[in-house]
Task: inverse folding
């Protein structure tokens, strides 16, 4: 029983896919921008069915994505800048 519990808590040695989130932010923003264009193009059809609010959802997602993309790029630059690098313990 003890070995089963210990084995269940072992984490796989997997490298992170994207450690700063910049790529995910840009992909999400691009998808929401594309959705905004499609919703705008089909707004008359959406509005006739009472679903015109989806355009505002897509616009809000695109705006949020732009803000998050800018923040993620800023955070990556801060992390990689030489001024914020800490000396290692070995030095």
Result:
């Amino acid at each position: 029983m003890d070995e089963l519990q210990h084995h269940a808590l072992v984490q796989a040695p997997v490298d992170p896919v994207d450690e700063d989130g910049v790529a995910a932010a840009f992909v999400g923003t691009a998808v929401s921008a594309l959705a905004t264009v499609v919703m705008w193009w089909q707004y008359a059809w959406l509005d006739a069915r009472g679903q015109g609010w989806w355009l505002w959802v897509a616009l809000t997602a695109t705006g949020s994505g732009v803000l998050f993309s800018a923040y993620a790029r800023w955070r990556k630059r801060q992390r990689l800048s030489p001024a914020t690098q800490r000396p290692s313990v070995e030095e």
Summary: The CA atoms of residues 38 and 49 lie 16 Å apart. The chain has a mean pLDDT of 85. The helical segments are 2-8, 22-41, 43-48, 53-80. The two ends are 45 Å apart (CA to CA).
